[in-house]
């Protein structure tokens, strides 16, 4: 298990882990894992230890888009 990074370091990083992305977007880990498995949320995988890395800014933007679409769909159904 890797060490937790301070939020300042996370916000400076180009890439983040799924746990860090979960914290930054206030999304459940399992939800983000589902998005990656369904190819909704792209990631890069380190060849050596198979760690999934998410481009911080692009991933946050993509998750915000997904949340907005889900909210629009929920409102449409009401």
Describe the protein:
- This protein is mainly alpha-helical and 78 residues long.
- The radius of gyration is 14 Å and the shape is globular.
- A 3-stranded antiparallel sheet has the order 1-3-2.
- The longest helix has 22 residues, at 56-77.
- Helices cover 58% and strands 10% of the residues.
Structure in a nutshell:
The protein is mostly helical and 78 residues long.
- The secondary structure category is mainly alpha
How many angstroms does the end-to-end distance come to?
Answer: 44 Å
Strand order of the largest sheet: 1-3-2
Rounded mean pLDDT score: 92
Q: How many beta-strand runs? A: 3
Kindly provide the radius of gyration, computed on alpha-carbon positions and rounded to a whole number of angstroms. Answer: 14 Å
User: Which ranges are low-confidence, i.e. pLDDT below 50, for 5 or more consecutive residues?
Assistant: none
What kind of sheet is the major sheet? 3 strands, antiparallel
User: How much strand?
Assistant: 5-15%
How many H/I helices?
Answer: 4
User: N-to-C SSE series?
Assistant: HEHHEEH
Question: Which term fits the overall shape?
Answer: globular
- Tell me the helix content: 55-70%
Question: What does the secondary structure layout of this molecule look like, with pairings?
Answer:
Blueprint: H1 7-12, E1 15-16, H2 18-25, H3 29-37, E2 44-45, E3 52-55, H4 56-77
Tag the structure with descriptive keywords.
single chain; 78 residues; mainly alpha; three-stranded antiparallel β-sheet; 4 helices
């Amino acid at each position: 298990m890797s060490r937790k990074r301070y939020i300042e370091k996370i916000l400076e990083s180009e890439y983040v882990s799924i746990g860090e992305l979960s914290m930054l977007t206030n999304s459940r880990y399992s939800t983000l894992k589902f998005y990656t498995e369904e190819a909704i949320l792209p990631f890069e995988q380190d060849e050596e230890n198979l760690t999934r890395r998410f481009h911080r800014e692009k991933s946050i933007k993509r998750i915000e888009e997904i949340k907005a679409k889900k909210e629009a769909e929920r409102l449409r159904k009401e």
